[in-house]
Write a structure and sequence with these properties.
The complex is a heterodimer of chains A (446) and B (340). Chain A has 446 residues and is α/β, with parallel strands linked by helices. Chain A has three domains: 89 residues, OB fold (Dihydrolipoamide Acetyltransferase, E2P); 184 residues, Thiamin diphosphate (ThDP)-binding fold, Pyr/PP domains (Rossmann fold, 3-Layer(aba) Sandwich); 127 residues, 3-Layer(aba) Sandwich (Rossmann fold). In chain A, 28% of the residues lie in helices and 23% in strands. With 340 residues, chain B is an alpha/beta fold. Chain B has a single domain, classed as 3-Layer(aba) Sandwich (Rossmann fold), CATH 3.40.50. Chain B has twelve helices and eight strands. In chain B, the strands form two sheets. A six-stranded parallel sheet of chain B has the order 2-1-3-4-8-7, with helices on both faces. The longest helix of chain B has 26 residues. Chain B is globular. The chains are: A alpha/beta (446), B alpha/beta (340).
Chain lengths: 446, 340
């Protein structure tokens, strides 16, 4: 009996990769721990080590094959030393990435951008973020990027790929693991008029530096009577990734949106990412850009125009509808779009609003939608208590109460620290069927 | 503070006491006196209920900022904590604007919206005025970073107390400054007490000037009660930074005569301890004596300076009471820079 070697997941969010090279050929004997192949993802090249001993009887996926899905059988191993059990994939942690609960495929864009920016091109959110930084750094010598692993490593999530090469070590700087110290340093530099982009490897680590973000960056303009502004961008992945448990899975939208003096944006598509990040870098105020790791590898149409930029503070109607308004941001926009598809099959026409900007909040666009649909569902990954959904619902109470035909409903993450176990994690995050159910309930179709 | 002087001298390997020229000492005397009289007036106004909230007086420590400021050029930056009135006056900010900020009036540097702990002047290179203990050290690194980034030859002076020196971000900042060779002068104003906790009870480090040693940052203990000693050490630090050799650390041995803030009865030290410092080490008295004994300055000459300073302070106090409170419309301004 042989064992099958499966395509391993080399990161919590990897769904596929390129089988770059086989270091062994059929007939070779393999020892445990030996490197047998190299796999390239959009983030990195990784070596695959054998777990079991045996002879490689056949290679099922030839080298050079792109887009090999995780858990695909890539080779067969004849169990040496009497080992006949079906060996799992080489890498220790076989992450069931394909079933990752937060992995929402990018829905096709149903609505065109508000302004016609001309021709578009399909790019990933990762490329869009990199292009936005590169464009602004070319345009303004005061813009620079700092963070952990942003330079030589090319970004922990490969967002800053190529920037060190183009802009040099003074403008793309690796920082030691010192969030509090380097964030304060960047804020101080911004006080002098420089325009730092601070990458947090994830926003979870921004809590180390939250005093500098709020007490120094956000408040100094006011405390100085308008003298000392802070043109700075704090960006990085926010929210749940996949199977990384409580300390690494948290949405900071409501934390930062709470504070006057900050702007907070949360892109979903590549166009959002490029347009909002460019706007954030140009903005003379501190701007928090909440990205999402799962979206980084997703592709969308994005305008190619050199001057493409979005307005911070404007939401986008991603899909028009007449029966219910679903408000979402970041990766949850994808889920809202899927829900709208399902609802359409059931005869319910859902309008999907991509907030893009959390603070300032485009209450006008939401209210205009609610005046049309008379029903509101909010959708977010974060916790319900004092969350963005609570704020959106209250804003609608204040501005469009008379137009509501049903109490607004929130779909949120569950009010617990994120569990690690796959089944529990799935339960802790918003699910498509919950969104559909919420829309049905406010339209009294349940 | 003879001990500190000796220690500093030993480090330099020479015994000659630091000195200033007649003109320099006259200027230093005037600037220290201005801070002293200003702070005394602020204390009075606080007692009258005209100044609210936190108010941390700098009385006793004047030689530190005045001596350091003598080493700086226009364009260099200064940043400090909440005990900041002296730093503002030393950088050349107007007494009127500072006092009016203390009374929360529109004529204050922050239009009355910042108060004692939050004033700034980009023009004078003063970047605050920060209320979170230790936060200014990271921010000061940012000022130095900007100088490094622009390669403009400027230096940043970051002041913090011996209490703040235990904050994690201070150590992070020492590492960053040394790592990137930032032109940053760290000044620990060691006035012996972080609020009510003496330095011995808060820091296991017995020589704070060596707190940057793990990162190779040169440090010196300085007699912070003597303006000439401060100036001399400051010149060394500034020269080091301007030469691109990275940060420098000076521990100023100093003393505050008043409580931590206006509401601090200062029960943690004896009246005798304070009295002894005032009598034996006061920076203004030392300068005064040197001027009278060593430079042939007369009491009448000093009286002219005293009167000038008194007039500036009285004018600032009058202005701070006449200037109106900010209009209610100011509540909602300066939250964000408007984007055109």
């Amino acid at each position: 009996m042989g064992a099958v070697i499966l395509m391993p997941a080399l990161s919590p969010t990897m769904t596929e990769g390129k089988l770059a090279r086989w270091l062994k050929k059929a007939g070779d004997s393999v020892k445990s721990g030996e490197v047998i192949a190299e796999i390239e993802t959009d983030k990195a090249t990784m070596e695959v080590e054998a777990v079991d001993e045996g002879v490689l009887t056949s290679i099922l996926v030839p080298e050079g094959t792109e887009n090999v899905a995780v858990n695909t059988a890539i080779a067969e191993l004849d169990g040496g030393a009497g080992n006949a059990k079906a060996a799992p994939a080489p890498v220790a942690a076989p992450a069931p990435v394909a079933a990752a609960p937060a992995s929402v495929p990018a829905a096709p864009r149903a609505a065109t951008p508000e302004k016609d920016w001309g021709p578009t091109k399909t790019i990933t959110v990762r490329e869009a973020l990199r292009d936005a930084m590169a464009a602004e750094m070319r345009a303004d010598a005061d813009v620079f990027l700092i963070g952990e692993e942003v330079a030589q490593y090319q970004g922990a999530y490969k967002i800053s790929q190529g920037l060190l090469e183009e802009f040099g070590p003074r403008r793309v700087m690796d920082m030691p693991i010192t969030e509090h110290g380097f964030t304060g340093m960047a804020v101080g530099a911004a006080f002098t008029g420089l325009k730092p982009i601070v990458e947090f490897m994830t926003f979870n680590f921004s809590m180390q530096a939250i005093d500098q973000i709020i007490n120094s960056a956000a408040k100094t303009l006011y405390m100085s009577g308008g003298q000392l502004g802070c043109p700075i961008v704090f960006r990085g992945p926010n929210g749940a990734a996949s199977r990384v448990a409580a300390q690494h899975s948290q949405c900071y939208a409501s934390w930062y949106a709470h504070c006057p003096g900050l702007k907070v944006v949360a892109p979903w598509s590549a166009a959002d990412a490029k347009g909002l990040l460019r706007a954030a870098i140009r903005d003379p105020n501190p701007v928090i850009v909440l990205e999402n790791e799962i979206l980084y590898g997703q592709s969308f149409e994005c305008p190619t125009a050199d001057d493409f930029v979005l307005d911070i503070g404007k939401a986008k109607v991603e899909r028009e509808g007449s029966d219910v308004t679903i408000v979402a941001f970041s990766t949850m926009v994808g889920m809202a779009m899927q829900a709208a598809e399902k609802l359409a099959e059931q005869g319910i026409s859902a309008e999907v609003i991509n907030l893009r900007s959390i603070r300032p909040l485009d209450t006008e666009t939401i209210a205009a939608s609610v005046r049309k649909t008379n029903r509101l569902v909010t959708l977010e990954e974060g916790w319900p208590f004092a969350g963005i959904g609570a704020e959106v619902a209250m804003q609608i109470m204040e501005t469009a109460f008379d137009h509501l035909d049903a109490p607004p409903v929130r779909v949120t993450g569950v009010d617990v620290p994120m569990p690690y176990a796959a089944n529990l994690e799935k339960l802790a995050l918003p699910r498509l069927e919950q969104v559909v159910e919420a829309a049905r309930s406010v339209t009294y179709r349940r | 503070m003879p001990q500190a002087t000796e220690a500093a001298s030993k480090r330099r390997g020479k015994a000659k006491a630091p000195s200033l020229s007649r003109e320099e000492l006259l200027r230093a005397y005037r600037d220290m006196l201005l801070i002293r009289r200003f702070e005394e007036k602020a204390g009075q106004l606080y007692g009258m209920g005209l100044i609210g909230g936190f108010c941390h007086l700098y009385i006793g420590q004047e030689a530190v900022v005045v001596g350091m400021q003598m080493c700086l050029k226009p364009g260099d930056q200064v940043i400090t904590s909440y005990r900041d009135h002296g730093h503002m006056l030393a950088t050349g900010m107007e007494a009127r604007g500072v006092m009016a900020e203390l009374t929360g009036r529109i004529g204050g540097y922050s239009k009355g919206k910042g108060g004692s702990m939050h004033m700034f002047s980009r023009e004078k290179g003063f970047y605050g005025g920060h209320g979170i203990v230790g936060a200014q050290v990271s921010l000061g690194n940012g000022l130095a970073f900007a100088n490094w980034y622009r390669q403009d030859g400027r230096v940043a002076v970051t002041y913090f107390g011996e209490g703040a020196s235990n904050q994690g971000q201070v150590f992070e900042s020492l590492n960053l400054a040394a790592l990137f060779k930032l032109p940053c002068i760290f000044i620990i104003e060691n006035n012996k007490y972080g609020m009510g906790t003496s330095v011995d009870r808060a820091s296991a480090s017995r020589d704070l000037s060596q707190n940057g040693a793990p990162w190779g940052i040169p440090g010196e203990q300085v007699n912070g009660m003597d303006v000439a000693s401060v100036r001399e050490a400051g010149e060394r630090a500034v020269a080091h930074c301007r030469a691109g050799k990275g940060p420098y650390l000076l521990e100023m041995k100093t003393y505050r005569y008043r409580g931590h803030s206006m509401s601090d009865p200062a029960k943690y030290r004896t009246r005798e301890e304070v009295q002894k410092m005032r009598e034996t080490s006061d920076c203004i008295e030392t300068a005064r004596k040197a001027l009278l004994d060593g430079f042939g300055v007369t009491e009448a000459d000093l009286k002219v300076i005293d009167d000038e300073v008194k007039a500036i302070v009285q004018d600032s106090a009058d202005f701070a009471q006449e200037s109106p409170e900010p209009p209610e419309s100011e509540l909602m301004t300066d939250i964000l820079v408007e984007v055109g």
